[in-house]
């Protein structure tokens, strides 16, 4: 009997789909209505009193006649009919109308597209979206949402602009042989980056990292930003279903870059406020062995150093321990060093490249991510670098770089900018000073409001402890506070949960998207939330 | 007994790996040699006369002592020793030397990276590589290899250059509000493209495609070239292990864009010279049903129209049939239309978008690829477009576009260029005339050598039948002829096998990489090969 009941229900969705289709054709909407008149009593027969015979034969016959009827109606709308739009293409041969006998169901997309097409559930992206709908502007939209959720550095745009105005034309088109220059930008160029830019970048990285480590341009693959650099590295280092360890709190973008298309899992290694969120090798060991027990293949560890979102810097000792750990487990290290030049504290940044220079270690497991979005504040230019000591990885990454290559005019422009040593020196110094100035003022003001920040030495953000303001002390309380900041204070900040922080109540606040002069305004808005929290507690 | 034989062999590879590592450290290479002295007699014991006890206990004990010995030697190389380089970082805590007790085997990369890091076996890439090692230059390297294997259009670079010289600065930096302009290029911009560029591109596509079809900027996702556009679409439309149908001969790049990272298979649908390599729906049906029988899920069909490498154009009737086929099978259509504006024949190009306008079909299965590398000859600028009628696909593609986004200065530049209607009109016309002129002369000259080309109306190449010159009539013969062109004539062309052509002896020859004046030189080089083939036959 189950068969009897199941079988006849099959044909019913089909005409309904046909109807849907026909409804969009205004003139044939009446046919769908008449179709419904047929189907409703039919359902009664099928689901209730019919038997095997009635339940299977009658609907099939009716379905056939219905299709025949709809097909006839449809063929009245041939493209050459006067009702169609004047630009329509005529069709010389008769239409086979395959569509009416085949499946007209909605075409399927990939599983990945189904997931990605849904609205983001991470508050990191949700916050960015909300800002884009109502962005603050001191004159045009003074009540808009202030963006403190994106580490965009706007403190030195005046320097970049001044340089561009002066040098743009010469740097893109060349000042010498005209024919040479157009051939250097319009036709295809090496996808993994122009050699000139690699050399200039190696110099810039050397300079930014304190002049104590050299970079070899032949170890570089250039990409359109650090984001594809991380993705390409992920594709190179691990297979779908493998995993990377990642200390928390971590940059929300890693989930996207590593999980989405490479299909690699991220295993959080929780760091604590009591350690100022510094990495702990024992926690790493535990996470590794637990993953192994679950049958997960761990293929690497991703660190961001200087840390995003905390802003602290790894000590050389910690880097040595990490190398030992990676060598012991025979896994890779991906070191995201995009904030290397944006230091302001007394602690000096040490690149993992420098530690490698001093140790007899297998360098082939170490890969550095760098880019110009942070330290040179040209995120819109999309310039990223994979720096690897592994020839196999470099060879594979070079091939993948054609999916993420930088436009040649931009490469020429950036090469020229980086090669202007006087400008670069001035830029690095001014940028550090301005970051320090804004950061000190901002963190001081927060302290006065009773909000303490984690100790930090780099980055464009502070990692603020607002656990005293949340109620309940849980992720729920954190999200409610985030919502309050968004709606009451109209500022977008990144909640710790978006960074997989295990302790609730921490927030990343970027301060380089505003000017020094705008700090009081932001602090005033934060004060409102603090006071409302205190009064309700 | 099998267990006895297997078990003791395990420890042996370990010390060998240790040796490898130590050999790179010059001072400890003697340790590896002494290690070998221990291992060789040990192997005799284990594999032959030992038993369970000797075979498992002795090697384990020896292995332990060997590791202990190597560890001691290794610890002599502590980083603070005077032999290390002067910039070395000191290590404050004692080194744990985890590495010497763990696996020191070479770190694994992903399967994909292993495959991609190997040299290309496709003659398409091999040819491009060879040119890059010895590129022809009329003055500097007149005996170098002439590039006819890449569809780069160099015929109108003078127009592009003239425009750039005049407009570069104003288009990137803006002529008005200075503060507005730096904010429009340096900070993060929408990853899927600036709206201004989408509008300009929609206009350009409308113009290039004969003015008979409108494009909606909101259906666009911009990418850094058509290559990532195809890859992103692949990720959106099918899952790993699914397949797309693709008529042959096809552009060798599809294999890379669809197979590498999305992991989608390409099922060739063979077209024949007797049909001038036009698509045949019966062949499509057969390929589809055969794939289904093998349990492969076909999720779409990729066409290039105008065809690369043949240069023919699909008739509206064929497009109608394709739509019927796709609707019948409920699959997607990806139409690569990057050569839409590079037409020279009497046949008019009709975009699939135009056919959709005139038919009551489900547009959500149709996706168009476009870009400016071919029709505007700015391949180095990396500007590509996904044009889709499917909201889910657009939403997902927008998110993926952050891995392939175009730099903002380039977007501003191109927006300005495309908005210069007088320039664009002049460019399109001049470009078509020049392509036609070079193509006619080139094909005529080939005909005089006895080489006929397929009928074509678009593109930057001809599809030449050299089957009369190959011996044996097979892929082997074709490859030998390719090698002869490379070494005797010193020209790089693309053999049909690289395009999955089922008939041997066809070659794609790009003619827009040379100037009109260089045609006699190229033809002379080809003549050499033709004559040598004829004399040897």
Automatic annotation (TrEMBL), chains A, B:
The keyword Transmembrane applies. Pathway: Alkene biosynthesis; ethylene biosynthesis via S-adenosyl-L-methionine; ethylene from S-adenosyl-L-methionine: step 1/2. Residues 146-526 form the Aminotransferase class I/classII large domain. Keywords: Aminotransferase, Ethylene biosynthesis, Fruit ripening, Membrane, Pyridoxal phosphate, S-adenosyl-L-methionine, Transferase, Transmembrane, Transmembrane helix. One of its GO terms (biological process) is fruit ripening. It comes from the Eukaryota. InterPro entries: Aminotransferase_I/II_large, Ethylene_sulfur-biosynth, NHTrfase_class1_PyrdxlP-BS, PyrdxlP-dep_Trfase, PyrdxlP-dep_Trfase_major, PyrdxlP-dep_Trfase_small. Coiled coil: none annotated. Residues 15-32, 77-100 have a biased composition (Low complexity). PROSITE patterns: AA_TRANSFER_CLASS_1 (PS00105). The keyword S-adenosyl-L-methionine applies. Its EC number is 4.4.1.14. It holds the Pfam family Aminotran_1_2. GO terms for molecular function: 1-aminocyclopropane-1-carboxylate synthase activity; aromatic-amino-acid transaminase activity; L-aspartate:2-oxoglutarate aminotransferase activity; pyridoxal phosphate binding. The chain crosses the membrane at residues 51-70. Residues 1-35, 75-100 are annotated as: Disordered. It catalyses: S-adenosyl-L-methionine = 1-aminocyclopropane-1-carboxylate + S-methyl-5'-thioadenosine + H(+). Gene3D superfamilies: Aspartate Aminotransferase, domain 1, Type I PLP-dependent aspartate aminotransferase-like (Major domain). Belongs to the class-I pyridoxal-phosphate-dependent aminotransferase family. Homodimer. PANTHER family: AMINOTRANSFERASE ACS12-RELATED (PTHR43795:SF46), BIFUNCTIONAL ASPARTATE AMINOTRANSFERASE AND GLUTAMATE/ASPARTATE-PREPHENATE AMINOTRANSFERASE-RELATED (PTHR43795). This is 1-aminocyclopropane-1-carboxylate synthase. It comes from Cicer arietinum (Chickpea). The gene is LOC101500775.
């Amino acid at each position: 009997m189950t068969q009897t009941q199941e079988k006849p229900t099959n044909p019913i969705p089909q005409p309904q789909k046909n109807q849907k289709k026909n409804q969009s054709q205004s003139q044939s909407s009446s046919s769908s209505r008449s179709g419904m008149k047929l189907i409703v009593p039919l359902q009664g027969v099928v689901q209730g009193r019919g038997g095997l015979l009635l339940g299977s034969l009658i609907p099939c016959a009716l379905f056939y006649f219905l299709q025949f009827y709809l097909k006839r109606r449809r063929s009245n709308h041939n493209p050459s009919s006067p009702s169609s739009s004047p630009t329509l293409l005529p069709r010389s041969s008769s239409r086979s109308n395959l569509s009416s006998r085949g499946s007209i169901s909605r075409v399927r997309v990939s599983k990945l597209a189904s997931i990605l097409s849904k609205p983001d559930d991470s508050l990191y992206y949700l916050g960015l979206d909300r800002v884009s709908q109502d962005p603050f502007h001191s004159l045009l939209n003074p009540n808009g949402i202030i963006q403190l959720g994106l580490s965009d550095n706007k403190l030195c745009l005046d320097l970049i602009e001044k340089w561009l105005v002066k040098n743009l034309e010469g740097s893109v088109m060349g000042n010498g042989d005209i024919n040479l220059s157009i051939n250097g930008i319009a036709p295809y160029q090496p996808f993994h980056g122009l050699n000139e830019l690699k050399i200039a970048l190696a110099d810039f990285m050397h300079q930014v990292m304190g002049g104590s480590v050299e970079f070899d341009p032949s170890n570089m693959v250039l990409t359109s930003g650090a984001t594809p650099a991380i993705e390409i590295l992920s594709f190179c280092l691990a297979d779908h279903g493998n995993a990377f360890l990642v200390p928390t709190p971590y940059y929300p973008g890693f989930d996207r870059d590593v999980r989405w298309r490479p299909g690699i899992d991220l295993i959080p290694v929780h760091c604590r406020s009591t350690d100022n969120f510094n990495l702990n090798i024992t926690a790493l060991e535990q996470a590794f062995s637990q993953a192994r027990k679950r049958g997960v293949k761990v293929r690497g560890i991703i660190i961001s150093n200087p840390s995003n979102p905390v802003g602290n810097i790894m000590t050389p000792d910690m880097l040595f321990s990490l190398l030992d750990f990676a060598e012991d487990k025979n896994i890779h290290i991906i070191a995201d060093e995009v904030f290397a030049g944006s230091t302001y504290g007394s602690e000096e940044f040490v690149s993992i490249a420098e530690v490698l220079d001093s140790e007899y270690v297998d360098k082939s497991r170490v890969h550095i991510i760098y880019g110009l979005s942070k330290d040179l504040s040209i995120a819109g230019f999309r310039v990223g670098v994979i720096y690897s000591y592994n020839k196999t990885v470099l060879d594979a990454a070079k091939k993948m770089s054609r999916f993420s290559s930088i436009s040649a005019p931009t490469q020429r422009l950036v090469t020229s900018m980086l090669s202007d040593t006087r400008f670069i020196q001035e830029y690095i110094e001014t940028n550090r000073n301005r970051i320090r100035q804004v950061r000190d003022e901002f963190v001081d003001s927060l302290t006065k409001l009773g909000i303490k920040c984690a100790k930090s030495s780099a980055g464009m953000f502070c990692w603020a402890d607002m656990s005293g303001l949340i109620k309940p002390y849980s992720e729920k309380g954190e999200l409610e506070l985030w919502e309050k900041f968004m709606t009451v204070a109209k500022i977008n900040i990144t909640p710790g949960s978006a960074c997989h922080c295990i302790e609730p109540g921490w927030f990343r606040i970027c301060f380089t998207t505003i000017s020094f002069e705008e700090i009081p305004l932001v602090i005033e808005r934060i004060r409102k939330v603090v006071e409302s929290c205190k009064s309700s507690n």
